[in-house]
């Protein structure tokens, strides 16, 4: 597991009238920038300093169990309701240099006082789109509550999965071309890696169905009923992603069957040729064996042309058997 990045703190405040954004060197400085009259978005990048995170959690009344879930980045996606906030944990999927998916956790706490605190393992440009929307005076985000900000973060995260699956779809198309290449020794290794990646994506996406349903069913929380259609839209996207993952897994199984069939056919062809060769040599070996017995009463041994005649007979037998095999389409 890659080590988490150095902790960096930033805060953005906005309302229908304006917005601002600041970097902070400490938790105390960060809290001084909070926007009491509008929406406050606190972003924490890097989880390598538990002392800073503990101080922030204590200052914002975040439960120790929530902080434990934030630091436990290998867990499955989850959502939990507390007295004055709702906690989310989701997976961000990016790409490693070796063209394989990398999974990181993003956690965010949505508080009743119009504050959202997000926690990322490493900087990710995915959420810069939200900053651009905040900077736009006419954006819907500026006119909505903190629940809509949480929706924007969830929506961006889920929609990014489509890009990952599109890229994996290109790899699956390559597998279809490679499946009939019997000399491609790396085929099975690459295919198994892709299957494992699809399983990881499935584990990252599958719990989101129930998580979002849980939020929709919540009553009296910071998530208003007005947000339900937006959350159901995310839920639909999650179902599409799950279906795509399942379809890709079935495609890989089919491609694997094609590859195994190609290898089996190649092996059958090799065995057929070897069987034909062995069959042809059976009568030839019989003749050679008969005249290899050193009996005195074998008159053919004394004929002047016995040796070339024997070779011609053996050759004719071999040719005759080959013609018979071809006529029966065994060759």
Notes on the structure:
The protein folds into two domains: 8-261, Beta Polymerase, domain 2; 264-327, Methane Monooxygenase Hydroxylase, Chain G, domain 1 (Up-down Bundle). It is of the alpha+beta class. It contains eight helices and seven strands, in the order ββαβααββββααααα. The relative contact order is 0.08. The chain is rod-shaped. A seven-stranded mixed sheet has the order 2-1-3-7-6-5-4, with helices on both faces.
Short descriptors:
single chain; 55% helix; 331 residues; alpha+beta; 7-stranded mixed beta sheet; Beta Polymerase, domain 2; 8 helices; Methane Monooxygenase Hydroxylase, Chain G, domain 1
Task: Describe the protein's topology.
Elements: E1 8-14, E2 19-24, H1 27-32, E3 39-45, H2 50-59, H3 64-71, E4 78-81, E5 85-95, E6 101-111, E7 115-120, H4 128-135, H5 146-178, H6 187-217, H7 228-290, H8 306-327
Parallel strand pairs: 3-7
Antiparallel strand pairs: 1-2, 1-3, 4-5, 5-6, 6-7
Helix pairs in contact: 5-6, 5-7, 6-7, 7-8
CATH topology of the largest domain: Beta Polymerase, domain 2
Strand order of the largest sheet: 2-1-3-7-6-5-4
Order of helices and strands: EEHEHHEEEEHHHHH
Oligomer: single chain
CATH architecture of the largest domain: 2-Layer Sandwich
CATH superfamily of the largest domain: CorA soluble domain-like
Percent of residues in helical segments? 40-55%
> What is the class of the largest domain in the CATH system?
Alpha Beta
Average of per-residue pLDDT values: 86
Q: How many strand units?
A: 7
What percentage of amino acids are in beta strands? 15-25%
Terminal-residue CA separation: 56 Å
The residue ranges in which pLDDT falls below 50 over 5 or more consecutive positions are none
The outline comes out as rod-shaped
Largest sheet: 7 strands, mixed
Number of domains: 2
Rg over C-alpha atoms, rounded to the nearest angstrom: 35 Å
Total DSSP helices? 8
Structural class: alpha+beta
């Amino acid at each position: 597991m890659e080590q988490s990045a150095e902790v960096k703190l930033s805060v953005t405040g906005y309302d229908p009238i304006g917005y601002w954004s600041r970097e902070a060197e400490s938790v105390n400085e960060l809290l001084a920038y909070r926007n009491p009259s509008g929406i406050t978005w606190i972003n924490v990048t890097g989880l390598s300093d538990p002392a800073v995170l503990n101080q922030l959690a204590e200052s914002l009344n975040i439960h120790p169990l929530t902080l434990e879930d934030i630091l436990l980045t290998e867990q499955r996606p989850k959502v939990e309701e507390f007295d004055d906030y709702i906690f989310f944990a989701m997976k961000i999927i990016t790409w490693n240099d070796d063209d394989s998916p990398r999974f990181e956790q993003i956690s965010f706490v949505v508080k009743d006082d119009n504050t959202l605190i997000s926690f990322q393992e490493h900087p990710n440009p995915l959420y810069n789109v939200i900053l651009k929307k905040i900077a736009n005076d006419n954006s819907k985000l500026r006119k909505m509550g903190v629940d809509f900000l949480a929706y924007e973060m969830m929506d961006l995260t889920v929609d990014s999965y489509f890009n990952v699956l599109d890229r994996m779809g290109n790899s699956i198309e390559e597998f279809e071309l490679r499946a009939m290449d019997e000399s491609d020794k790396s085929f099975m290794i690459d295919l198994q890696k892709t299957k494992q990646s699809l399983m990881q994506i499935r584990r990252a996406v599958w719990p989101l169905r129930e998580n979002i349903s849980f939020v929709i069913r919540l009553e009296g929380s910071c998530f208003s009923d007005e947000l339900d259609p937006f959350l159901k839209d995310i839920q639909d996207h999650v179902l599409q992603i799950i279906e795509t993952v399942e379809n890709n897994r079935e495609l890989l199984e089919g491609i694997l069957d094609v590859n195994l069939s190609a290898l089996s056919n190649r092996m059958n062809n090799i065995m057929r040729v070897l069987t034909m060769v062995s069959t042809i040599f059976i009568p030839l070996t019989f003749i050679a064996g008969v005249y290899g017995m050193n009996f005195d009463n074998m008159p053919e041994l004394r004929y002047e042309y016995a040796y070339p005649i024997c070779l011609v007979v053996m050759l004719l037998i071999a040719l005759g058997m080959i013609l018979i095999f071809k006529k029966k389409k065994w060759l």
